[in-house]
Design a protein that fits this description.
Largest sheet: 6 strands, mixed
Structural class: alpha/beta
Shape: globular
Distance between the termini: 40 Å
Number of strands: 6
Length: 412
């Protein structure tokens, strides 16, 4: 994938996003990353360029408090995965739209958020996501290959028909029939058929009268969700990608669930971890990001079974096979890390506004706000998110006054 330089337009977008919500932008977070390099290098070297590429599968649980850098970390994983030609699905888990106790909705979220490798210009300018976009990209890539080879359209149509009919024997025959007929619908310019098929592939409903004509004979529910995920992984591999990386980000606190819902969540998580040890989940890596591991507190057998599966701790030197990635343990000196982030954001701020902040006052401002934010580390909002929001506010004050800004002046 290509690189891009920090332009004033990109810089201003970063400042507006980070200074407002405190959430990293989809492109631009790279310009102020600090402290994740060792973790990311191990994931790249030990997994994405070797074990996963060679047919393995893995599950990692990422632990980091709200505003503690989980999303930034997952975006970093996504960028590395794209570099190595993986399809990636990133999505937030939420109680109403994507609850983990409803595995059919988790499959639907994976399918709706699939993104093939993107260039910086595509990320900045906007891009399409979802299994429909991936099918279109697959179709266009195949057509381009034939046209570049100078093959006449009639012969191309025959050979593409033969090619798509020979797709592998996926666990779900309905999935195989769906992607095959979706490809042929694009070839024949049958938009309505394509949309009908994609509706089912995205888990948006099953109409027997409509879908059976495409060889789709099952609805997607909790009993078929894992079968669909396995088939999706196999198909992604068949159409030329290295594999699939799924990034699940618990973006808001999950309210109290019924005992049945909690048991379903735990069973689904246990089954997902176990599936990564089976051959049906080849070339796939799953990341489940949560604020803490309190959901494992319980006395029933399922709690103990999960605790055993999630007990090993990821360590870049001693145990890269560990399941738990604790983002706070990556920080040797949290205030120093914040200070480095702040100075990187200062450069972005200066690029955005075409100015240069006074150096001594800038260094003092960043350190003041870093210390103030870290002192709030036991609050409801992660101190990292609090810091990036407040340091942008501090830059605005420094720009106006020319004097160092204290933590108190930005509400810390």
């Amino acid at each position: 994938m290509g690189e891009t330089h920090l332009t004033p337009e990109i810089a201003r977008h970063i400042i507006e996003t980070v200074g407002g919500s405190g959430i990293p932008p989809e492109y631009g977070f790279q310009f102020f990353s600090v402290g994740l390099e060792s973790y990311l290098k191990v994931i790249e070297d030990e997994y994405l360029t070797s074990y996963i590429r060679d047919g393995g599968a893995a599950f990692k649980m990422v632990i980091g408090m709200y505003g503690g850098g989980k999303t930034h970390f997952l975006y970093s994983i996504r960028e590395i995965a794209w570099k190595h030609n993986y399809v990636v699905s990133y999505f937030p888990l939420s109680p109403d739209r994507t609850p983990f106790h409803r595995l059919d909705l988790v499959y639907a979220a994976i399918a709706a958020n699939l993104i093939y490798p993107q260039e910086p210009s595509e990320l900045i300018g906007g891009y399409e996501r979802g299994i429909d976009s991936l099918i279109k990209r697959w179709f266009m890539d195949m057509v381009r290959r034939y046209r570049e080879a100078g093959i006449p359209d009639e012969r191309m149509r025959r050979e593409l028909n033969t090619y798509v009919s020979s797709l592998g024997g996926y666990q779900s025959t309905s999935f195989r029939n769906a992607v095959r007929h979706a490809f042929l619908a694009l070839l024949d310019k049958r938009d309505e058929d394509f949309n009908n098929i994609v509706q089912w592939l995205k888990g948006e409903g099953y109409d027997r009268a409509i879908h059976r004509r495409y060889g789709i004979l099952q609805k997607i529910d909790k009993s078929s969700a894992f079968q669909m995920i396995r088939s999706l992984i196999e198909w992604v591999r068949d159409i030329g990608y290295t594999g699939l990386v799924v990034l699940m980000d618990e973006a808001e606190r999950i309210p109290s669930m019924s005992s049945r819902q909690r048991e379903s969540l735990l069973n689904n998580l246990r089954e997902l971890i176990d599936e990564c040890g089976h051959t049906g989940f080849r070339n796939a890596m799953f990341f489940y990001a949560v604020p803490d591991d309190s959901f494992l507190e319980g006395r029933a057998q399922i709690y103990e079974a999960l605790r055993q599966r999630l007990s090993t701790v990821f360590d870049e030197e001693l145990n890269p096979t560990g399941v738990r990635i604790d983002l706070e343990k990556a920080e040797v000196d949290p205030v120093l890390d914040l200070n480095q982030i702040g100075m990187k954001l200062a450069r972005i701020y200066e690029t955005a506004y075409g100015l240069r902040l006074p150096r001594r006052e800038l260094a003092e401002t960043v350190l003041n706000i870093a210390r103030g934010a870290y002192n709030r580390r036991y609050g409801d909002v992660g101190y990292k998110r609090l810091f990036v929001q407040k340091v942008i506010q501090g830059f605005h004050k420094l720009r106006t006054s020319g004097e160092a800004v204290s933590a108190e002046e930005v509400g810390l």
